[in-house]
Design brief:
The protein has helices at residues 14-25, 57-62, 115-125, 131-136, 208-212, 260-276, 280-283, 298-302, 305-315, 367-381, and strands at residues 41-44, 49-50, 53-54, 77-85, 88-96, 101-106, 110-112, 128-129, 143-144, 150-152, 156-165, 182-188, 199-204, 221-230, 237-240, 251-253, 286-288, 316-318, 350-352. By secondary structure, the chain is α+β, with helices and mostly antiparallel strands.
Length: 382
């Protein structure tokens, strides 16, 4: 994977420069590598965007080898379940949406890399899960694996909308290639939240109307998003089948904010954000500050834990970094699903190679981790 950084020592203008100035004034150091060990402070976000194109894993790994004789790629094809015969995975049942046909593909080994939502769903549809739960929706159990679908974790997220004056923004000096949605991040260490939770603050470099293809605001203003993510959540959720129909989405309960420390960390983060927004560099470019409540000053909400907890619960969202649901662990742990090589307990020739095997979501974005998991599992198979 090719990694690029939008800037190195200083942001290239626009809202990134204003954000970095305010973060530094608040006592946050500049970090040269936000992928580094225990890296905190503000810095440039590492991306896989090269020459204006986001280089996905498919582009980097799959496209260069499409002509290999031992590789066949089936487009518009959905796996419905893994066929398990006497404790051994022997292939997958698939459906082709374009042709309206189905087929069984035999395999010497099956590797599920469908992600932390679809991999647990496929395991349950294949008969791997809690036997009582499977029977309740009409799936015949193949193995007793109660940990499948349990232990989901994610980065819960709070988003604020910022109205910014175009004229007040510093000039942007960058090449003519389109930039990423996010160029700069601020990582809070757990010590600043008074909990064991670290936080990540992102601000969009590109205005909303360009990100989402909407109409540009009038009167020389533009809107940006400020996003606060809880990066080390203690709360855990679950996923279970709605029906035995593989085309039906499963029930997903993220169970956000179940752990009291998660709420405490987000309260601390919101208070620090609103303080950050009062920095003189930020004030110069804002048309108006975001309001937490339309009928009372921000200070009243921020000073009251109960009011702030309710506001957070009403505005919680996701970073789409779901992990867990088929977590790694020893075979005698009833909540674990796979071993250290990604092999599913009690099933031969079946592996998992995605974020679902993680016991907890990584404390940064999950793209690098998911690629690393694929590399590691592939090494175990050779």
């Amino acid at each position: 994977m090719l990694i690029r950084r939008p800037w190195t020592t200083d942001p290239t203008g626009g809202l990134d420069s204003v954000f970095a100035t305010a973060a530094e004034a608040a006592g946050h150091p500049c970090s040269s590598d936000l992928n580094g060990t225990a890296s905190f402070g503000f810095g440039s976000i590492p991306t896989t965007m090269v020459d204006g194109i986001r280089r996905s894993a498919a582009m980097q790994y799959l496209l260069p080898i499409l002509d290999r004789p031992n590789l066949k790629v089936l487009g518009k094809t959905r796996v419905l379940s893994v066929k398990i015969n006497q404790g051994r995975a022997v292939g997958v049942d698939c459906a082709n949406a374009a042709e309206g046909t189905s087929q069984f593909i035999p395999a010497g080994e099956v590797v599920l890399a469908a992600g932390a939502l679809s991999t647990p769903q496929l395991l349950m549809l294949s008969g791997a899960g809690d036997p009582d739960d499977l029977r309740a929706v009409g799936v015949r159990p193949a193995i007793d694996a109660p940990g499948v679908g349990r232990g989901l974790s994610d980065h819960p997220d709070i988003t604020l909308n910022l109205e910014v004056s175009q004229d007040a923004l510093p000039a942007i000096t960058r090449n003519h290639q389109p930039g990423p949605a996010f160029s700069t991040a601020l990582h809070f260490p757990a010590e600043r939240t008074g909990t064991k939770n670290a936080l990540e603050l992102l601000i969009t470099s590109t205005p909303n109307h360009k990100l989402f293809g909407s109409e540009a605001p009038q009167h020389g203003t533009q809107e940006h998003l400020l996003m606060l993510g809880l990066m080390s959540p203690a709360s855990r959720g679950s996923l279970r089948l709605r029906t035995a129909d593989p085309f039906e989405s499963p029930f997903i309960d993220y169970n956000y904010l179940d752990a009291a420390g998660d709420q405490t960390a987000l309260r601390a983060g919101l208070r620090e954000i609103l303080h950050l927004l009062t920095d003189s560099a930020m004030q110069e470019v804002f048309v108006s500050l975001p309001r937490l409540s339309g009928d009372m000053p921000n200070e009243e909400v921020l000073d009251d834990d109960d009011l702030l907890n309710r506001w957070i619960s009403d505005h919680i969202g996701t970073r789409f970094h779901t992990s867990g649901g088929a977590r790694i662990g020893p075979v005698d742990d009833p909540e674990s699903v796979v071993n250290q090589r990604g092999q599913v307990h009690q099933v031969q020739c079946l592996r998992v190679a995605d974020l679902s095997l993680l016991p907890s979501v990584p404390c940064r974005g999950t793209a690098n981790t998911s690629v690393f998991i694929g590399e590691l599992i592939s090494d175990f198979m050779t």
